[in-house]
Structure formats: C-alpha cells, structure tokens
TrEMBL record:
Belongs to the complex I 24 kDa subunit family. Binds 1 [2Fe-2S] cluster. Keywords: 2Fe-2S, Iron, Iron-sulfur, Metal-binding. It comes from the Bacteria. Gene3D superfamilies: Glutaredoxin, NADH-quinone oxidoreductase subunit E. The keyword Metal-binding applies. It comes from Thermotomaculum hydrothermale. It holds the Pfam family 2Fe-2S_thioredx. This is [Fe] hydrogenase small subunit. [2Fe-2S] cluster binds at C82, C87, C123, C127. One of its GO terms (molecular function) is 2 iron, 2 sulfur cluster binding. InterPro entries: NADP_DH_HndA-like (IPR028431), NuoE-like (IPR002023), NuoE_dom (IPR042128), NuoE_N (IPR041921), Thioredoxin-like_sf (IPR036249).
Amino acid sequence: MASIDICSKQELTTILERFKPQRDNLLPILNEINKKFGYISPVAMMEIAEYLDIPVAEIHGVISFYHFLSTEKKGKYIIRLCKTISCEMAGKEKIARMLEKELGIKFGETTSDGMFSLEYTNCIGMCDHGPAMLVNEKVYAKLTPEKVIEIVDELKKRGQL
Ligand code: FES
C-alpha cells in the first residue's frame, strides 16, 4: 500500500476523475482512496473537499461514521475479529488472545512493520460458523487458536514476498 503523502497527487487525481464531482459520490470516492492507500490522509480530504465542493468537516463526519474508513494508516492486513454474541459464545476470547500473542500487539494497534492491524468488528454474517474474522475482505470462520497460528504464519510469509 502506498502512502498518500509520498505518492504523487496524480494517483489521487486519477481516482477522483473516475467519479463525477457530485456529493453523492463522496462515499464511493472515500472507499476507493481507503482501499488504495489504507487510509484517508488530510491531504486527500482537502483534495476531495475541493473536488466535490463540500466542507472538510463533512468528509470527517462520514469517515468517522463508517467503521471501514480510517484517517490513520493501518497495516497491510487488517484483521477484524467479530465481537458479537454468537462469536463471543463460540470462543472469541481465546481467538483474540492468540491473535495478540502471535502478532505481539493489542486490539486497536498496528505492528511496527506496518503489516498487521488488529480490530474488533460487529457481526459479519457468519454467526453459525463462529468464531469468525475478516482479513481485509476475506472471511475466516470456525476459528481455533491453532488455525489462528496457521493463518498468521501464512500471512507473514505472503507479506515477505
Ligand atoms: S456473531 Fe460473529 S459473525 Fe455473527
């Protein structure tokens, strides 16, 4: 994931130009930028505000409303463990502790190498197959502590490629 403050503004402009400069396009634009850079920087917010002719405060408001949008740079792999009742009852806590142990970070943190961010999320629709988590957009269900070790190992290997 490139950093938006390092990359040329050209990449940002390219994303913006794929959308008409209409307020309705704010969410899709934010999604695209978040996907591309891993977060929405102050520079990006100002560019969007100018392009859509809306206040930066409105953009802030939308970003803080949607859990999947962020103003902070996150890891290449964002792990979101479901914290809702079915997963809680299926053993979410053991999975949470194993993720923290394997990654060496707490929930809400990002590893110093920028590879992993660890977060909780609400139900991801896998209630009958809990505990469940997302790694970016991929779902992992019926998790066990052993499975967590395998998944994290695999991601670490992939991240080194
Ligand atoms: S409660 Fe965890 S996926 Fe629904």
